[in-house]
Design a protein that fits this description.
5-stranded antiparallel beta sheet, 2 domains, alpha+beta, single chain, 246 residues
Length: 246
Amino acid sequence: MVEPCTTPHQQSMSTDTSTQTATDPAAGLADHHYPKAYRQLLGYVDGHDMTVLHEDGLYRHIRFATPGTSIGSFDLVTWPGHLAISGDLGSGWTFRREEDMFAWFANTYRAGYMVPAGHINPSYWSEKLAGSRRDYEGFSEDKFTADVNAMVDSAITRHALDDGDAAELRQETQDEVLDHAHSYDTNSAYDVLSSFRPEALDFGGSRPTLTNDVDPEVWDDCDHHFLMACHAILWGVRKYLTETSS
């Protein structure tokens, strides 16, 4: 089975040499850190305060919220070997690994090191989900779109379409398939693509589909809600460790 989340399966020191900018903190993040979800997370947490509701060693209850609203708020609760997130940005995810889960998520075992902002590891972290594991995988609109665009490129080459017909095929695919991708799941995406017979490929006979080689598994990726929870956890852990160490 295709591995849905493409993050490396290890909790290692980051070797990403890209830099984040003040105007776009997600700029330069590798795809396996999911910069699109990180940008969305930053929009929610701008203005968040951190409130320590309880702290007794590894027993912590930390709230992150913007005063006067619950939008984008979340709580992190830890006890030895566990971390749970609840709230607007993620509920129902509990992770189990090391005694101090804040140290584990931030990978602070080496003095002076902390996982850089936005550098989530959802594939590896998903392996540490405890108890009743909610689905953390699902249909990815981005992966579906990339796959369909590759099919269009292949069809243009295979049928030797001129520039006009190629442009028509791209527009028809956009209008009939891709513009509705936000409403698909894997099954409905497969049904739509399998029945799509573009007029741009009408050569006087029966119109073919874009391709006969459709693999829906390549459209799976980490669920967006899980990615948001991962980004919220790392953002919250980094904020806590930074503010409590000063």
